[in-house]
Amino acid sequence: MVKPSPATSHSSPRFPDALDSSMQRLLLAHGSALSNLALFVAVDSGLFERYGLQAEAPPLTHFSSTAALLRSGEADLGTTGFTQPLVDHGRPDPLRIIGGSGKLGMALMGQPGLSMSDLCGQRVGTFADDPMEVLLHDALRVHGMDPMQIDRVLYPSLAEALDELTTGRLAALTLIEPWISRLRLRGFEVLCDGLHAWGGDYPDTLLVARKSFVDAHPEIVCATLRAMLDAQEAITSNPREALRASAYRYPEFTLDELLTGIAAQPPIIDIRPLRECILARARSLEALGRMQASDSIEEIFSFDLLARTLAQPSAKTFASQTAVQPL
Predict the structure, then answer these.
(1) What is the total count of domains within the chain?
(2) How would you label 63-92 residue by residue, b for 16+ Cβ within 10 Å and e otherwise?
(3) Within 10 Å of residue 122's Cβ, how many Cβ atoms?
(4) Confidence band of 73 (pLDDT split at 50, 70, 90)
(5) CB 53 within 8 A of CB 26
(6) Cα distances (angstroms) measured from residue 62 to each of 39, 81, 127, 248, 272
(7) Which SUPFAM superfamilies match (predicted)?
(8) Final residue in a domain of this structure, among 198, 220, 253
(9) How far is 121 from 55, CA to CA, in rounded Å?
């Protein structure tokens, strides 16, 4: 939720045309994959402060936490799995996709030596209310298998699921980076990834905001997009340096593991080319019983502010009457 906050001193540079010195506090929802790194770097490196926002991204332990924060209104915007705007498109104040966050980096990982055909009758884990649930459904489909052929197990958190996989109690589990890269080095099999299941590039997480927030605060949306774009540039140009601020959010991994993960799941804020890939997942979500598509489903995209932000240099993006004002 956006809240007024006193002006705050900081070391981040401010552009001459940047926003009013009265900072706005912003609670951001987010996931745990490396596809959220652009948001973390923007928060931890002070990039939001450049544009008049004091952003917070508190730790979240469950995959459903992000969805709950956005649905309750406690968080007005943030990063979330790319299927959530589809699932929520019929709600009274639906989510709007305002940009991207990260792409690729999702796979169904199996025990060493296993193949997809070996999963019949086996326990296979995934996560409800997350794109990985759709990945499992579609991975089975492209390999000619019926979901009823496996014993599907839904987990609320990554830690419990990983424990069951690494101790042999699961035959396979849908996972994200940097876990995929680590488990591959340990001999686990990539049974099917998103490229295979969906036929090309795909997003993992998106930058979203509730419709009412986009309508009421376009200047905050633009500021958020600019901070995320700056973070993407920092990660792309010097990932090792960018990770200095945010590696603490992935305490189980070494810097080299994170760098490998970033290469497999890079940041992408301009998500517009993947629009059709997102819409195409509606059919699978309907098959899973997660949603029923309506005529308004294509309204989930709200890219006009992204286009405006991309068209202007960062120092000029907010040199207008749309500058953030105290609420």
Answers:
(1) 2
(2) bbbbbebbbeeebbbbbbbbbbbbbbbeee
(3) 15
(4) confident
(5) yes
(6) 18, 13, 10, 18, 28
(7) Periplasmic binding protein-like II
(8) 198
(9) 46
pLDDT at 325 over 70: no
- Within 8 A by CB and 6+ apart from 238, the residues are none
Give me the residue label for tokens 């980096």: 105
205 or 1, greater pLDDT: 205
Q: Residue 21: its pLDDT value, please?
A: 47
Residues 262 and 231 in one domain: yes
Report the pLDDT averaged over residues 315-326: 44
Give the pLDDT confidence score for residue 1 in this predicted structure. Answer: 53
What radius of gyration, in Å, describes the C-alpha atoms of the chain?
Answer: 20
Task: Based on the fold, state whether residues 135 and 223 are members of the same structural domain.
Answer: no
The continuous run of DSSP H or E covering 245 comes out as: helix 239-246
Do residues 83 and 218 both lie within one domain? yes
* Each residue's pLDDT tens digit, 233-253: 999 999 999 999 999 999 999
Length of the chain: 327
- The pLDDT, as a whole number, for residue 314 is 65
DSSP 8-state assignment for residue 119 = G
For position 157, what pLDDT does the model report? Answer: 87
Q: Find the distance separating the first CA and the last CA of the chain, reported in whole Å.
A: 11
Separation between Cα atoms, residue 48 and residue 142, nearest integer Å: 42
pLDDT of residue 65: 57
